[in-house]
Amino acid sequence: MKCKQRPELVGEPFATWSINRYERDPHQYFDKTTFDINDELIKIAPPQAFNFIWNYYNKDGSINGNILNIIKSKKTLFKMGYANQSDANYIALKILQIYPLIAENIANQFEFFIIDEAQDTNDIQMGIIDILKNSGAANFMLIGDRDQSIFEWNNAHPELFDEKYNQWDKIELNENRRSSKNICRFINHLSSFESINAVTKQIADYDYIPSILGYKTEKKKRKSEDWVVSPEESKASFDNIMTLFCATCEENGIYINKQNVAVLYRGQNKSEFLGVHRDKFEFSSNPWITNNYHVKDIVKGKHLYENGALKEGYRLLEKGIIEAVNKPDDKNFYCTKSFVQTLIDINGLKEHRNNIFELIELMPSTKGKTLTMWITETNPIFVKFKIQFSIEETNGDILIDELFGNNMNHGDIHPFYFGTVHSAKGKTFEAVLLLLGKRAGAGMNYVNMIKTNLNTLKPSNQEEMRIVYVGITRPRKVLMMAVPEEDVSEWKVKLN
Q: Alpha carbon 459 to chain centroid distance?
């Protein structure tokens, strides 16, 4: 990296990346990009996060100017000691390649290497495994479920897991310790196993049979703006399913809280069926202003803090406040852990925290307020500290509870857990309602996919069906699916 100090991990999940000096500043993409095993720049964020079309090469074979600028920016910021998590993996691989003695030391230090969720490894991670194995590490165990490989959009390559599966000794685990026999029979239609055996005695014979229910989808008349089915009617039909789902939970003695009950959906846009807006990537609706991303940290931190996530809330507030003080004089300023520690060394821990807590207490509550309302109320209070919070006001008319509700998943919005299927990976619930739309994330209609042999589908569509599989394998007792009413019969043919 050629940096003069210990590197620091930045970007999510550590904190919002906030160096963005002007509208097309390549620094803004530092947390959204990394390098692959061939040293080429790759995206680790959705296409909407970039304000240009990602074409790596020009027609003459040269690298696109936008890509070149980001590559230069990455190298500049590496020298400043910054790396996102994907960068850390890439740099670790490079170190092991350049300095084989380090690989040998690590290989000799640990007797066992256990890699969980191995079906979601990428070429960088598997490259590290291969180097350590070739350097003398004798005992590797890869644990994974090929049916749950759902991160190819994030540069995971499940075929790397397949190669090891075919090369190494293997043990197949076809016993399900989570769900009832009825759920196992239901999910087996999307599994690569011939059969899945429910083996937990307390739950295996639970008698609830999974159900598939239909909701009305929005429709407009052809060549007309008139609604055949309005958004309100569509939402109301889903609400009926929600009511039935909650009643079913109660009838089965399942207390509705975030540990027991979940409503999962494929794609963030379906969260609007639950009355939850989201912090969108689209530049047209982004309320955060260039070089003012610390405002997001402060508002989100205050919201978390008020809703009981004290540690995470304080961390964001501390970082945001320090950047609010320093960014007016230095657009490149980014609050690192080492900078916070320097302030603590100078002022003492007690005084430092007292200063932060004083500002936190002065901030008004985010409860029941739109982003614009909170900013308008907060700025006069902070004038004496020469701090002003700015947002894109045309996009600020959204309740903070809704803006960050999906991140918080707090009980003020819904008593049950809600989120995308990806967010629930590895979780277990007593009851799950899975909400699917007409189309999968890859763009193909679900009905067309389920009518086709899974093995003949394009890889992206195979992954979409695996996402459904992950969703329906989360519950122990009760499983419902909500799909467009015109698709119910096809789903029943596939899964019953």
A: 21
